C-alpha cells in the first residue's frame, strides 16, 4: 500500500488532524501527547496516510543548539516520530523521515533525542558523543544518559561530535 505524504505547518492543521496526531503519538509513546505537542512552537508536521488514515508521523521545530564554543545554530529538532502498530515494518516511518530530511535542508542541522539510535543511523543520523548540556538560569547542567543524534544538511559545516552540545532548557523533556 502506497503511503501518501503531506507536510503541514502546525498552525494549518485541522482540528481533526491534530486529534489524529495526538491519538497516534499518545499510543506510540504511552503518554497524553496533547500538552507536549502544544509546547512545540513553530512545528511542521509530516503526515503519512494509508487506508485514508494517519498511520505514520514526524514533526520538526526550530531549536537553537550550540556545538562546542561555536555560534548558536538553528536546528530542525525532530519529535513525535511514530508509526501505528498495525502498520510498522512496511517502510512508512522511513518514508516519513526521508521526506522530513528533505524538508529541513535550509536548517543548520537536524537533531533529535531517541531510544532507538540504530533506526536513525540507517537514515544517516549520527550519535552525538560529547557531553550534552542544558542551559538553565545561566547555568550549564550535564544530562548524562541521553542519546542525541544529528543529521547534516547542505548548510551544516564541520561538526566535532566529541565537543559539547548545548540546548536551552524547555519544559517536559529537555532533549
Ligand atoms: C520507530 C518506528 C517509528 C519505526 O516505524 P516503522 O514504520 O515500523 O519503520 P520502518 O518500517 O520504516 O523501518 C523498519 C526497518 O527498521 C529496522 N529497524 C527497526 N528497529 C531498528 C533498530 N532499533 N535499529 C536498526 N534498525 C531497526 C527494521 O529492521 C526494518 O528494516 P528493513 O526495512 O531493512 O527490514 C515505530 O517502531 C514506532 O512508532 N515506535 C514507537 C515510537 C518510537 O519509538 N518512536 C521513535 C522514538 S524517537
Describe this structure in words.
The protein has helices at about 15-30, 35-40, 90-105, 115-120; strands at about 5-10, 45-50, 55-65, 70-85, 110-115, 125, 130-135, 140, 150, 165-170. By secondary structure, it is an alpha+beta fold. The chain has a single domain, classed as Aminopeptidase (3-Layer(aba) Sandwich), CATH 3.40.630. Strands 1, 2, 3, 4, 5, 6, 7, 8, 9 and 10 form a 10-stranded mixed beta sheet that branches. It starts with a strand and ends in a 7-residue tail after the last strand. The mean pLDDT is about 95. The structure holds coenzyme A (COA). The site of coenzyme A has 18 residues, from β4, α3 and α4.
User: Which sheet architecture does the biggest sheet show?
Assistant: 10 strands, mixed
Shape: globular
CATH fold-level topology: Aminopeptidase
CATH uppermost class: Alpha Beta
Residues in helices, as a percent range = 10-25%
| CATH architectural type | 3-Layer(aba) Sandwich
Task: Give the overall average pLDDT.
Answer: 97
Annotation field: number of helices: 4
What Rg is obtained from the alpha carbons, in whole angstroms?
A: 16 Å
Number of domains: 1
Number of beta-strand segments: 10
Give the strand content: 35-45%
Keywords:
175 residues; alpha+beta; Aminopeptidase; 10-stranded mixed beta sheet; 4 helices; 21% helix; globular; binds coenzyme A
Topology:
Elements: E1 4-9, H1 15-29, H2 34-38, E2 44-50, E3 53-67, E4 72-83, H3 92-103, E5 109-113, H4 117-121, E6 126-127, E7 132-136, E8 139-142, E9 148-151, E10 165-168
Parallel strand pairs: 4-5, 7-10
Antiparallel strand pairs: 1-2, 2-3, 3-4, 3-10, 5-9, 6-9, 7-8
Bound molecules: coenzyme A.
